[in-house]
# Entry
Amino acid sequence: MSTRFRVAAPLALLLAALFGSVLLGPAPRAHAYTIGWNDVATATESSSWGTGYGPGWVALTFDTGGAPHGPIVGVLYAAGVAGEPGTDHMDVYSTHGPAASVDGPFAGGYAYGGFGGCAWAYWTGKLRADGAHHSPSCTTPPNHTTKIFCYDQAADRLCNDGVVQQSTEPEAGVWKDITAHPATIDPGGCDAWGNVGASAIYNGTAVAYQNSLGHIASGTVKVRYVTKDDHAVMALVADGALPAHMRWAFLPRTCLTPAF
# Structure
């Protein structure tokens, strides 16, 4: 074989590898979370949606007595979703489930982003391994009763009445039958938000709105709960009103009128 061909073969292989990587792009990440530092899967990596998750986001909840069972209390986002400039992370210490309402195990740990506290993420399938533990330990996810939310209906009709009725309303502080507890969006509409912060949820401090989901001009929503400070309402909105197949959002209490 001539010297010319001995040189050309390695060069050809190098060029093929170079242009192949440009055309194909970076190799996809492993489709798995880990016990440790995780980020939120992008919409390209996971486009599915369902209860508590969607393309580029995963919702958060808490423990109401031994298992993740509370309502949605916040959301983690991939970069570019809900105005998030960088991908949110969760430091996972444990898993639980799956549960009947979700596709796979919950992930328990410290949720960063606009939440900033211990929580359960609805589905490990929306998380991607990104390294070792970073945060203070959340080996025991938060255990609260739903009375962390407003249950003084005498002060605000949208608040839960605090009465436990096992067949229809088993938890004081949240409405289970949301269809029976609608609210009308006032003229001028409502801004929708993905997070109000862990402190507002667990400790009743003032809400700190983060992650804008847009403006809802009109319509009716279904109320799940009102924050303890009576400033934000977690509500189910009309399909298509929010981006990326989201249905739940925090709305300011001042833009809603009870319709029950």
In short: The radius of gyration is 22 Å.
